[in-house]
User: Fold these one by one.
Assistant:
Number 1:
Amino acid sequence: MHRMPAGPKLALLSLVALLVAALPSVWAAVPVAVGVPVVLYLGAGMGATAGLRELARQGWALRWVIVITAVGQLIFLGPEAAAANTARVVAALLVVGLLPLTTRVSAMLDAMERGMTPLRRVGVDPVRAALLLTVTLTTIPVLARLASEIQDAQRARGLRPSLGRSALPFLIVALRHADDLGDALAARGIR
């Protein structure tokens, strides 16, 4: 998958994520949803150990998504739907998360621009739309890293990291990152 061109890789991973998200809300969907990212990360060209390590790292980064999704689903839908829906959401996120790990940003941007060219007829600027999507995809890992750094800083100060203690510092660094990103785009003439 690492050597695959960006356009087909984007289409394939998007299709796989949609298929995983479309799985039924039954117990049998859980192992399928869990298995798909495992197979994709093993075949991503990083090597088996590195692929599984990266999958574990990505899964750990989604721990709050897992908790919030599972708890909400348990309260309203019961255990079977909660397990299946949580597995589907997390699997789809893990599958899509493979794209920025195996594709250069410039290749992603070019592929998205080419793919959105037909939308020009309806008034969509493919260059801007591709840039927006690329910035979004590349910002997610940055925000995950910032959240991890905040928790590490809290541990270094002898505090146990918690969502309540991390929310305000995370908001501040996320807004600072957005500001820096906006300044960088403006410096390049992108409005």
Number 2:
Amino acid sequence: MNQPAPQAPPPELRAFRQLYHARYLRYALVRLGRHRGAVEAVERTFAELAARWPEVLSAPRPNAVAWRLLGRQLAHHEGQIPTAGGPARPVETMRADARVLSQSLGLPPAEVADVMGVDPAHVTVLLRRP
């Protein structure tokens, strides 16, 4: 029996992947310290994005949705119980994310904001020393 060929992802999702995949993978490598786990977490994130793409696109900030999905995947790989898919993440988690992106990956604040799907002003506040 012939199975239908897998459907190609929509062009918007391919573009989104092209924009964010490398930075997500670099971040995941820092968080997990294991290449295989990082690749798996990022690929699962993009698989979940593909399954929910119309919903993701309807969100005010699709990159924020993707960042939350990646965070849940990484928490799973770290043996943590990810929180439910609510819109808010704890400030401490967001601060840690911003610091890894800024300090470990060397991204400027505007790029950190883009990757996380938040306003640049929010990143400025997150990166201030408490």
Number 3:
Amino acid sequence: MLKRITKNYYKAFSMLLCAMLCLASGFAQETARKGVVKDAVTGSGLAGVTVAIRGSSNSTQTDASGTFSISANTGQVLVFSFVGYEPYELAIGQLTSLEVNMQPSDNVLEELVVVGYGSQRRSDITGSVASVPKERLSKLPVNNVMQAIQGAVSNVNITQSSSIPGDAPSTQVRGLNSINANREPYIVVDGIPLSKTDGSINDINPNDIESVEILKDPSAVAIYGVNGSNGVILITTKRGTSGTPQIRYSGYAGIEEPAHMLDPVSPEGLLERYAEYARITNTSLFNGGPVRNEYEWDNYQNGITTDWFDAVMQTGKVQNHNVSLSGGSENARYYVSVDYLGQKGIIKGFDYKRYSFRANTDFNATKYLSVGTSAFVTAHNRDGGRANLTQAAAMSPYARMYGEDGQLTRWPMYSEQLWENPLLHTTTNPERREFNISLNGYAEMNFGNIWEPLSGLKYRLNAGYSYVPKRSNEYHGLSVYNANGWGRILNAESQTYTVENILTYEKTFGLHRFDFTGLYAARSKYWQQSEAIGEVFPNDILEWGSLGTASTHKVTSEANLYRTISQMARLNYGYDSRYMLTLTARRDGASVFSKNNKYGLFPSAAVAWNIHNESFMADTKNVIDNLKFRISYGVSGNEAIGTYQTLALMDSNPLAMGNLSNAALRYRTLMGNDNLRWEKTAGFNTGIDFGLWGNRLSGTVEFYRTHTQDMLLRQRLPRITGFADVWSNLGKVENTGIDVTLNSKNMVKDDFSWSTTLVFSHNKNKITDIYGDGKDDLGNRWFIGHPVGVIYDYTQVGIWQEEEIAAGLNRGWDEQAEAGAVKLADLSGDGIINDDDRRILGQTAPKWTGGLTNTFTYKDFSLNIFIQTVQGALRNNPQIGGASDELGRRSAPADLGYWTPENKSNEWRSLSNRSNVYGYGFPKSASFTRLKDITLSYNLPSDAAGKIGVSGVTLYASGRNLYTWTNWLGWDPEARDIPRGHTQDNVGDNTNYPMVRNYVFGVNLTF
């Protein structure tokens, strides 16, 4: 018995060993094939090309430089496929280094485009859906994907008002559709919303992004209902493909500097300013001059000057490192990446670090069930005390930085106590931490693989959980001259749950094609915040780590819960690839509204006609490759208000009664409103898509008009009611505009090509009604027939001169005028300057924007040049306006002149405190044209790359914000510039940060 068992085991072991040897022999014949795939016309590498072995599940994709690596046997056939290109097949020989040139296909209309809860062929799209150019995503080193989109997509206005490391730009799609409501577009990542989770676009690592689509017209955004009124941005991240695992490294490093340096007044120029101010105000300087203050006097006597901009600024540094691993089999695919971004800001203390991890997986559990994840974790670190640019701009070059004890002075221009030392808060060590932990997954069932008659029917479950904790800890003690000590701990967090049930059905009957999508979704977000403040500490040793040792304490906390329920149905119908129809209806319910109006319905309809597919167009095939007409109409919504705003709420306040402290309740100043309704935006869009002469010239032209009504405005109430205001459905806003995108292949040679992309957009925004009585709201600067954001001010016509005052020309015009004062137009003609002389001078939003991209390729080199322009915007210039009582003290910009009896300027006012008694804001054009970025890249030939042990190498150098043409006096027409003291406790002063120019060098490697 034992002998028979042993014999059977020996036989089984022999068979297993034989199988293993045969398998090993088979693997031994496989060879790693490395290569590069290029555009046969431009010669540039193609990213995302699928490389598969015919008859096998083994496949891979090319990286950002077009390189790939795959194991294949001699005699097998590699199949190359990519949207917009003709398929290519290559029989494997003995070569291990391959170069493939793919020909662009004329049938680019077959490209699949993400449209929300699915995708469509570009030829079947009926709404306005813009795709961000792939090269902007893959070949531009940016810290935030919005920086890559800026100026590259028509009527998507992205403003980088703050260059503070870690700050995200603001985005508007097709103008302002609301006054009080949120104006940012809705962002969805891999089908799960990022917006309204307290997450930020900065949480998404740009290296992980595969594609970005922007839904702009009401028909396209209506599928997102209450979330779609400001446009929708759909981000799709990279996923794994079956085949040999690929390791990719992308990294860059560079330096940053101010894009424009606002030079301060020279020491000599400031002394002249002091002398003139003393003459005008009839005041004496310190010790008879020429300086104003004690500390200035000491440094002046010793010939000591300080460049305060140099003191608070430094050469910024930026670096980014990303490693990703992707691959898988036919039934299991993965994409994993880790990323580190580090920035050392150009102003001391503005440092930023971001750590991110992403894991995208896809599994075919059975032939009818697939599951997957789209999970990521991001950590942000903005720790450190920061220098203050606003304070530095005010410092006298003779001001004293350090005291006799070697410590930073508190008042560098003592005895003047208006300006603190701009480096003072670099001695503190606050913590600013933020995290985003998002665990998202899906399960999809294909009923057609269970029972063939159900072919085309699918059910998908999307589920997401987002946890966003934040904390901010700070302490101010002796280092900032707070003898008592002040500490604070602020913790906030939000948890968001999303569940979406999606049912889709696709069917084709002859020339008829149907596509139905149904949705039932629910969402819940819980937010809470707690704050503890302590004052008067025994010492500074533990800082905020021991608030309990403080003599006085203050603790506050708050929380809220937000929930939505949504249903949606969409039907796409197509006939013979010529006529397309899309019908959509979405119903949203949100907890922010009362039971009377908790739900809103948002329908839309769109049609499209592929004219080039008509038989009567047959004779134009050599000229017209694509000609499609689209028209749509739809309604989207905006909830616009926070939680509990429709309720009559009460606050608890301590009340002393007898010897006891009791809690007393009182109504808040906001009145409740059970009848509050949704804010709705209805819009019309029509567009033409075209491609001519083999798509040598292609593009899109669109015209749109949107109308927002039932706007949610906070209406003022008479105080006799006991309330200050109430949320009401009032006002209407209209937007009209045009979008243009043109693509041209200007020159196509064997080794050289030149292509151009031009985008242009114009938007006209106006308020058509406010309170229903046809009257303007002067206090809020809202005017019927004009844009939401306007400059309403006087009109400057010059500067009052001495001879004019002496001749009495100011009488019957401006009785308060003195020589050197701003001369304002008496537009009402009543002989006095007052509010009746104010007029609407312009709008704060640009009237039109444009972008021009030129791409040149020569063999393995590629040069990309992008120019952006923003025209027609008007802004009050705080550098010119400043605070009138500080003109004689602060070290104003060197370019800012002033009137004197000698120079008799007719542009600049005098240094007198009365030179601008009417508070004129000095509005100036904020228009500019900017050389936004230049990138030069080189793809190392595959045979050369193979010699160093990698399958692909791309080297590049890139510059951003290289030069700006503008008449704006200041750091930059886009940059935020908050005057001193215009925010509580002057905190906002420390948010001023110049626009940054950077130069980076990078490399992409594929192993």
Number 4:
Amino acid sequence: MIPDPRASRAVLVGLDTYTGMTSLPAASHGTRRLSKLLRDLWGLPKSHITVLDAQASADGILSAVRDAAEATRDTLVVYFAGHGLRDQEGENLYLCLAGADPNYPQVGTVAYRDLRRVLRTAGASARYRLTVLDCCYSGLAGAMSPHGQATRDELARALGEPATPGSDPSEDYGDVVLTSAPHNRQSFALPGATYPEATGELIKILENGIPGVGPELSVTHAWQRVRKRLLERGSPAPQQFAQNTVADSLCFPNRAATTAAPAEVSGEAERYSTKLPGISTKIDQTQKNSEGGSSVVLASVPESDWRPAPVGRWRPEKEPRYPGDAYFKQQRAHLYLLDKAWADLKKEFKTVRRRLQVPFHVRSPSSIATWLHQNTGDSRWMVIAESIKVLEDRKKGYAPWTAADPYAAQVPGGSSPPSYQLTMETVNTYRERADQLRADINKLIDLHTDLQE
């Protein structure tokens, strides 16, 4: 799922000059390039991005992260590139500022544990929190074991927090931490390189995309490709630490999706391939993949002048604050109406799956719409998919919430009241948008089935 840029924030820190350590001009270059990619690729407003350089102090960095985290309701991105140090015990990571002393890690640095605590506390309302560390010993952020595989309990211990027993691995919120190196290895910015090594590979992937993975590029896809490229050249292995399904759920637009070659289907994937009504499937016998499979080309569906209307924002710009417990019953009744409208919309996709023969393993409304876009070439399904995501995110601020931190122990009765009052006017707006989307879905289904007839 591509997060809503309007409800997301980013803090990017790149340290290029140091008084007692070697300079890293590649760090600031990478930070500026990532800032532009977040704007151009993701659509993150410039005002939602904070870029800090070698002039930044520890308080300045932590304050910037705090402010961004408090304003985030969807995805918070925090990136650091520079030198990293570890203490004598090899247990704690320190992010070096311009005046860092390599002999005393606690001087002139930001302790990663302090950064993580600010992220956890101020970003409690964020759905996803993505931290990217391109520095030496950055794997300490994930409490990596000597064998290179960190468990959820190890990561919790590294943060000084108890593990959460019995958590649901399908929960769609939480943290993902990406590091350029294991806990005991250095990272590199090669001489003359424009960007630090891991950051450079990530930038290439975001700029060019990955063919064959669809219109959305998950964090897992991107970081696995970074890891593969660095290992091929003998560099330290980048690491990924994630909770729940965050690394697979958190996605960014895949630039290769619009220019990718026809997908190669073989083995298990071929078993699920489906011929859509009114769409011809052509198999070029001259194109063979390395495993002997055939390349399957799905012809595009001709598009008429009609296009579905994007749902857009359905919540008011200025929402009234929640008035307190006296309003609880009415708030709960209005939430029920939102849930019912969403449930009715989900039912519509049973019709979509049946009439357009969507494979059984494609289940959620947004994945159905995305699959139809990939397999028909009809861009209108992506409008449907984006509208679904807007309507799916319906309860933030309206329902009682607990800190969205999968590491922290659950505190009985620790939920907080809603932030905003859910008025009947807002409920009616939501239902109108859901009804319009259902009508657009039905019209798009009819266009596809008419082709068959």
